[in-house]
Amino acid sequence: MTKDGGNNGKADKKAQQYGVTPQSVDFNDWYNEVVKKADLADNSPVAGAMVVRPYGAALWENVQRWLDDRFKATGHESLIFPTLIPMGFITKEADHVEGFAPELFTVSKIGTEELAEPYVMRPTSETIIGHMWSGWLNSYRDLPFLHYQWGSVFRAELRTKAFLRTSEFFWHEGHTAHADEGEARGEVRQQLDVYHEFCRDMLALPVVRGEKTASERFAGAVATYSIEGMMRDGKALQSGTSHYLGQNFSKAFDVKFQTREQKEAYAHTTSWAISSRIIGAIIMTHGDDFGLIMPPRIAPIQVVVIPVGRKDNFDAMVEEGEKLAAELRAQGIRVKVDKRDGVTNGFKYNDWELKGVPVRIELGPRDLEQGVVVVKNRNGKDKETLGRNEAVSGMTARLDAIHTWLLDRATDYMMEHTVKADSYEDLQAAIEGGNWVRAFHCGDAACEKSIKDDTKATTRNIPLDDAEFFNEREEGRCVKCDQPSPYGKRVIFGRQY
Ligand SMILES: [Zn+2]
């Protein structure tokens, strides 16, 4: 084990010692090993389901906290619905049932009694929420309904991958109902923008805001918008969605009201979600061969203090570490003091690097005498010796700088791995090379499917005019079939998680 445990170019050797396969050797193995060894999640005895361990749960709670505050600040109220939904509800909206039928878990028995009408474990809650809304809604004065709930949903998966593909996953689902289309569409965009801001400012994830093509829409939606992020293997991860559902669900569930003019009208509804997949995005956007790199603003532990002492002065160093931690906590920084005895410093350094803690402070007796500490950023190679007080007072700025570094690195990676293609051969080659491709498309579902069959790439989205990336307006003809493109934009194609 290297003495300093730093990112000193011995990635392979260290990875072998610690047992994390380098990303370049096998990205999939790297991911699975990091999830397990960083104590984020474990396999469970339930097929397709994961167990989120405390470190992973702490990360998810930080995600929840920020989003929950923002939902409330934008006027939404949370509520709580049952996990079970009557089977008959799911079949009411034709596209919806077609989309979800193959993934449904069904409860058909209570004790030994067969149920006359089975229940399904909710795959999402539009149907039961629509049913209840129809009873709550009378007049235009009742609108809008601005609701959301936190919980888990169930969609059967054969091949499990922690956080990315599990039969039970965790999320919030936002559901709103409005008197008119304009207001509902405004809500859809507002929530998409909240997700975009969250990813950029809290997770250091650059994401592309755009509209999905018709064949990639949510089952039952009129329009689906997404934010798409690029992982370090060039694949896309749909990191959040926001849907305009038109009157499809309100007609299926009789969500209607008296207008100001005493006429009867159906509500315009929306739904939106970010799920526990976002943790997969954090891991795969920022991680390196040493393990995770937690974006500082969401990290469960932002700074780890490691007392470096011998037997006779270890306790005194721990005490000094606690004092330092208390000063950092007073600034609102999340700090852990690693008090483990009988474990080498090198082991501790590697352990916290694997877990991606943004900053490490080493505190030794000789340094303490001189009033200095040793500081190392997770994303850098070098250790710095700083005055103790300077290290404390500069910590928030240091964490911000790490955030910016991560965001810039991820943005550069996305830009370097996104190419324009104007011929089908170029598209195929670029996808094969692990890139996103920007190309014109005709919008025809069969044409889209033929590209997917050839390349395993799907349309990710069509960037919005105010998207941060790839938003320029351009006219062209379909890269596959040469029909004119209806979008006035290039579409992003990519393989996806
Ligand atoms: Zn085409």
List keywords for this structure.
497 residues; alpha+beta; BirA Bifunctional Protein, domain 2; Rossmann fold; Translation Initiation Factor IF3; 3 domains; 8-stranded mixed beta sheet; 5-stranded mixed beta sheet; 16 helices; disordered N terminus; binds zinc ion
Q: What ligands are attached or bound here?
A: zinc ion
Please estimate the helix content: 25-40%
The CATH class assignment of the largest domain is: Alpha Beta
> Low-confidence runs (pLDDT<50, min 5 residues)?
1-12
Shape: globular
**Strand order across the largest sheet:** 3-7-8-14-11-10-9-23
Count of DSSP-assigned helices: 16
Compute the number of structural domains.
3
- Give the name of the CATH architecture of the largest domain: 2-Layer Sandwich
Q: Can you tell me the CATH superfamily of the largest domain?
A: Bira Bifunctional Protein, Domain 2
The biggest beta sheet is recorded as: 8 strands, mixed
Count of extended strands: 24
What is this entry, summarized?
With 497 residues, the protein is an alpha+beta fold.
